[in-house]
Amino acid sequence: MSTEEDLKRLNDNGARRSAEILSIVSQGGADQKRGSMGWYEIQSKIAGKGTNGKDIIAKIKVMRKVLTIGGIRVSANHQDAQHIADWYGVKMLTEKISDLINQQANVRLPILAQGTWTEPASPPTTDGSMSRLFRVFDYDRIVTEKLVQIYGNPNPPGLYVNEGKEWILSEKYGPNMKEQVNPNSDTKAKYKDLSCNHGWYQPNSEKSPLGPGPGNVKKIQTQGHRHDMNHNDYSQLLRFVKGVVYVSHDGGENYEKKKYSDLLKNPTLVSLLSYYEANTVPPRHPFVQKKFWKGRSV
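Request: output the structure for the sequence above.
Response:
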């Protein structure tokens, strides 16, 4: 297992450091191990659409908090985040699953943003240093101090929200949008070549009705498709969802095992995981070629 001292020797360049994080994880150096990732069960439901008008309910297991190495919350770019998910044999979040985590979390942090990407930047960061290694350590310390301040414990039990932002799967990676150019991206690239970051929920957002985009659950970062796949900054942390979901059609009396990827293709059940119709949100990022399959190279 890698230590904090190992992390301090990583590259100061965000893109290169992301590849180093992937290397550490793929050698078993992260604190979370395959099959023991700190899973926490959340639920999603479709009201009244099951057997005899009962609810359809899904039990979904998500990481209760973000991935750490040597106890430090580490960031990576979207491409390497997908590779890490593949190595663990797990899946990336959708917008709806991220919102469900926010709705059901019991360890709630305020937004602890430390500045903006480029100059002129807002205080407290004015040097355009968001991708640098020291920001990773600074931010981790700030989050831990806030947990102690609120809960009296650097590692309280439960489901966390707002440790940072997350990379997610987007409907814009689907067949209808992936070849379209996003004119607002840094490189004017097609959606399939862009990352999608998301999160930092505002106070009381857990009380908002679930729904896509900026008009529903209140968050600082709605689906962002501005950055390319190499973008990495201190706030882009790593959190995944298990690839198996248990679904009940009779209000929770009986459950059957379903694949996460199959649910995203199912016209009836897709709304358990996504705000969008079936076959719109893909089960993986379309840009990323498979490098690992459940811990093995491909």
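Confidence is low (pLDDT under 50) at residues 117-126.
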